[in-house]
Design a protein that fits this description.
The chain is α/β, with parallel strands linked by helices and 247 residues long. The chain has one domain: Phosphopantoate/pantothenate synthetase (Rossmann fold), CATH 3.40.50. It is 53% helix and 11% strand. The chain is built from ten helices and seven strands. It has a five-stranded parallel sheet, with helices on both faces. The longest helix has 17 residues. The mean pLDDT is 88.
Length: 247
């Protein structure tokens, strides 16, 4: 499908086409397209921009990733389809490892996702061997790598589901989420929810990682002074305000 670059929704339409193709290739689950559309709706309410509260959350997420002993970034089909290169770059900057973890799980799809990340430059991708279980989850998403999520102290979960966010928190891990819906179980269960579109959030977190390297006192201050509940309230107020602004 040819889309004119002059189209006001050019970027959005190109993203949808890319996700559609990845769905056909078996990297993205078909239901992931629904999740993407839901996220776009919330992004409209943010003005399709990184608002101050989201930037603050991104900064705190970066601080947690740098303070972590064993940071892990999990990747599902939507995250890979939208921001694979960005997630690889962020992992290298911290450094952290990437682990593939998906809801609609088959060995073939796991392999395709791992290969996709490796083709784009990812190294030491976890997820092919899942020899540990998270308590409190009935689906295959309970399965994880003992080298990765199983032993992680800080886990970044971009575009995830609430059950796993809650299970990770119950396991004593610091949960960092990227989720455009401030009402979602994921955002509420997380220690830090970055309410922003993933292709803006990930490079923004990486930028803060570089800014905060060598700044342990600043990192701890950011972590200690942050309230996820308060930050989500600010985000919701921003969205509500946008609904009533005059066009």
């Amino acid at each position: 499908m040819e889309i004119s670059k002059d189209h006001p929704r050019y970027r959005s339409l190109m993203t949808r086409e890319k996700l559609s193709e990845l769905s056909k290739e078996g990297i993205l689950a078909p239901t992931g397209l629904i999740a993407h559309g839901r996220g776009e709706a919330f992004d409209y309410l943010l003005g399709e921009r990184t608002v101050p509260a989201a930037n603050e959350a991104a900064k705190v997420a970066a601080a947690h990733l740098l303070e972590a002993r064993r940071p892990i970034i999990t990747v599902n089909g939507n995250a890979a389809g939208l921001c694979a290169k960005g997630l690889i770059s962020l992992a290298n900057a911290i450094p952290a490892r990437l682990e593939v973890n998906i809801f609609h799980r088959t060995p073939g799809r796991i392999e395709r996702l791992c290969n996709y990340l490796e083709e784009l430059g990812g190294r030491d991708i976890l997820g092919r061997e899942q020899d540990a279980l998270l308590k409190g989850i009935e689906s295959d998403r309970a399965r994880c790598s003992s080298e990765g999520i199983g032993s992680a102290d800080v886990v970044l979960i971009p575009l995830e589901d609430g059950d796993r966010a809650s299970a990770l928190a119950a396991a004593g891990k610091v949960v960092l989420a990227i989720d455009l819906n401030p009402l979602s179980r994921t955002a509420i269960a997380a220690d830090v929810a970055v309410v922003d579109e993933i292709t803006r959030a990930v490079p923004n977190i990486e930028r803060h990682v570089y800014d905060l390297k060598g700044q342990p006192q600043d990192r701890r201050f950011l972590i200690d002074s942050f309230s996820n509940e308060n930050n989500l309230s600010l985000i919701k107020r921003t969205m509500c305000k946008s609904l009533f602004q005059k066009s």
